[in-house]
Design a protein that fits this description.
Blueprint lengths: L12 H28 L4 H9 L18 H14 L1 H20 L2 H12 L5 E4 L15 E6 L2 E12 L6 E7 L11 E7 L6 E2 L2 E2 L14 E12 L13 H37 L1 E2 L2 E2 L4 H29 L5 H25 L10 H8 L2 H4 L4 H15 L3
Parallel strand pairs: 1-4
Antiparallel strand pairs: 2-3, 3-8, 4-5, 6-7, 7-8, 9-10
Helix pairs in contact: 1-3, 3-4, 3-6, 3-7, 4-5, 4-6, 6-7, 6-8, 7-8, 8-9, 8-11
Bound molecules: flavin-adenine dinucleotide (FAD).
C-alpha cells in the first residue's frame, strides 16, 4: 500500500472524533487532578476506570477479541492526547499496549482467546519486563532464568527491575533465559506470560517490593519483581513450543512499535509545554510589555513550535509506515529519539519562560519538567536509538 507522504497529519473522520473525545477527556478529567495524584504519588484509579469505559485499553485489539481494532497511527494520536494530559496516564496504557501487541503477533490462538478479551476491557492490565538491576540497554546480558521442572511446567527465578505497572498488572510478559549457554545469548531467551493477582505484593514464587520512588512519572508504579521458583505452565510460553528461544526477537519486535508509542508520548508532552508557554508568555509582563513580545522569548516559542511539529511528523510517518506493512525500524528509532528530546527541550524552555513560577508546584510546568526525562530512557535511551539509527542507515546504504 502506498504511503501518502504529504498527509501525515491528516485525520480520518474516525480519527478526528476519537482524538477530540480523548482531548476533552484529558482537559476535563486528567489535567485538573494530575497535580494532586503527582504530589501524593497515588495511582489514578478513577481516571483508569473511565478509560476502561471509553475502551482505551482495547484500541489496537481486534474487534473479534472485544477491542476497537484500530491501527497504530490512530493509537499514536490517542496516546499523544493522553500524554498531553499527564504522562503517567499514557504509562498505564503503554505496557498494556506492548503486551497486547506481543499476544496479537506471537500468541497461540488459545493465548489470544484467554487474554485479549479481558485485556480489551481493561479487566486485566499488562506489564512487560526485560530490565534487571544490572542490565537495561544490553538486554542479552539478563540473568533471570526459567527451568523446566516437569513436562508441562517451568520455574522462573531472578530479579527484574523497573517494571511499570509491576504491582497492579494482572499479566506480565517476562523475558528470561531458558538456555543460559546459548551462543549468541539471544537465541536462548524465552518470553513467558505470567499471570498474577493484581495488587498482591507476595504470591508463591514472586515478591514485589515497595514501588521505586521516582523524580517524576508518579502515580503509575515502577517496581522490582523478585522471582524465586515462580511456576508457569508450559502453555504460557509466548507462541507455544515454537516460542522457546524466540523471546528476544519477539520483545525487540514489540519495542519497535513501542518506540512509536513513546514518540507519541513525547509529542504530547512537547505540545502541552508549548501551550503553557504560549499562555504564560502573553500574560506575564516585563519591561512594559508581555514577555512574548521580547524577541528572546518569541524565538524560544518558535523553536518549541518547530520541534513539536517535526516530532509529530516523524511519529506519524513511522506509525503510518508500520500500518502500511513497510519496514519502519529506522523511522521508529528516529521518531523516538527526536520526539523524546523535543519533549525534554520544550519542557525546559517552557520552565525558563515561566521564570520563578516555573519552579513552583503551583504551575503545571514544574511537573512536566520532572516527567519529561523519562522519555529519554524508557524503551531504549537516546544513545541506544542513535546506535539503532546509525546501524540501519548503514544497512540500507551499503557501498
Ligand atoms: C520510570 C522507568 C520505567 C521503566 N519501565 C520499564 C518497564 O516497564 N519494563 C522494562 O523492562 N524496563 C523498564 N525501564 C527500564 C529502562 O528500559 C532502562 O532503564 C533503559 O533501557 C536503560 O537501561 P539502564 O537503566 O540499565 O541503563 P544502562 O544500560 O546501564 O545505560 C547507562 C547509560 O549508558 C549508556 N549506554 C549504554 N550502552 C551504551 C552503548 N553501547 N553506547 C553508548 N552509550 C551506552 C545509556 O544510554 C545510558 O546513558 C524503565 C525505566 C524507568 C526509569
Amino acid at each position: 500500500m502506498a504511503v501518502a507522504t504529504d498527509t501525515y497529519t491528516e485525520k480520518t473522520d474516525e480519527q478526528k472524533a476519537i482524538t477530540e473525545m480523548v482531548r476533552q477527556f484529558a482537559d476535563n478529567e486528567i489535567i485538573p487532578v494530575a497535580e494532586e495524584y503527582d504530589s501524593e504519588d497515588k495511582f489514578p484509579e478513577p481516571i483508569v476506570e473511565q478509560m476502561k469505559e471509553l475502551g482505551l485499553f482495547g484500541v489496537t485489539i481486534p474487534e473479534e477479541h472485544g477491542g476497537m481494532g484500530l491501527d497504530l497511527t490512530t493509537y499514536a494520536m490517542i496516546v499523544e492526547e493522553l500524554s498531553r494530559g499527564w504522562i503517567s496516564i499514557s504509562g498505564v496504557v503503554n505496557t498494556h499496549f506492548i503486551g497486547s501487541y506481543l499476544l496479537m503477533k506471537f500468541g497461540t490462538d488459545e493465548q489470544k482467546d484467554h487474554f485479549l478479551p479481558r485485556m480489551a476491557t481493561g479487566e486485566i492490565r499488562a506489564a512487560f519486563s526485560l530490565s534487571e538491576p544490572e542490565v537495561g540497554s544490553d538486554v542479552q546480558g539478563i540473568k533471570s532464568t526459567a527451568k523446566r521442572v516437569a513436562e508441562d511446567e517451568w520455574e522462573i527465578s531472578g530479579q527484574k527491575m523497573w517494571v511499570t505497572n509491576g504491582l497492579l498488572s494482572g499479566v506480565v510478559f517476562v523475558l528470561v533465559k531458558t538456555d543460559p549457554k546459548a551462543d549468541p545469548p539471544y537465541k536462548g531467551m524465552t518470553c513467558f506470560i505470567c499471570e498474577k493477582e493484581p495488587g498482591a505484593a507476595e504470591v508463591p514464587g514472586l515478591r514485589i517490593p515497595p514501588k521505586i520512588r521516582k523524580m517524576g512519572y508518579k502515580g503509575v508504579e515502577s517496581t522490582e519483581l523478585v522471582f524465586d521458583g515462580f511456576k508457569v505452565a508450559d502453555d504460557r510460553v509466548l507462541g507455544g513450543p515454537e516460542g522457546i528461544g524466540q523471546g528476544f526477537v519477539q520483545m525487540m519486535d514489540a519495542l519497535e512499535v513501542g518506540r512509536v508509542n513513546v514518540a507519541a508520548r513525547g509529542v504530547g508532552v512537547a505540545q502541552r509545554a508549548l501551550e503553557l508557554a504560549l499562555r504564560y508568555s502573553q500574560q506575564r509582563k516585563a519591561f512594559g510589555k508581555p514577555i512574548a513580545q521580547h524577541q528572546a522569548i518569541t524565538f524560544k516559542l518558535a523553536e518549541m513550535g518547530t520541534r513539536l511539529e517535526a516530532a509529530r511528523l516523524l511519529t506519524l510517518k513511522a506509525a503510518r509506515m508500520k500500518d502500511a506493512g513497510e519496514r519502519s525500524d529506522l523511522e521508529a528509532g528516529m521518531a523516538k529519539l527526536f520526539a523524546s528530546e523535543a519533549a525534554r527541550a520544550n519542557a525546559e524552555d517552557a520552565l525558563r519562560i515561566h521564570g520563578g513560577y516555573g519552579y513552583s508546584k503551583e504551575y503545571e510546568i514544574e511537573r512536566i519538567y520532572r516527567d519529561a526525562p523519562l522519555l529519554l530512557i524508557g524503551e531504549g535511551t537516546s544513545e541506544i536509538q542513535k546506535m539503532v539509527i546509525g546501524k540501519k542507515l548503514l544497512e540500507r546504504n551499503p557501498i
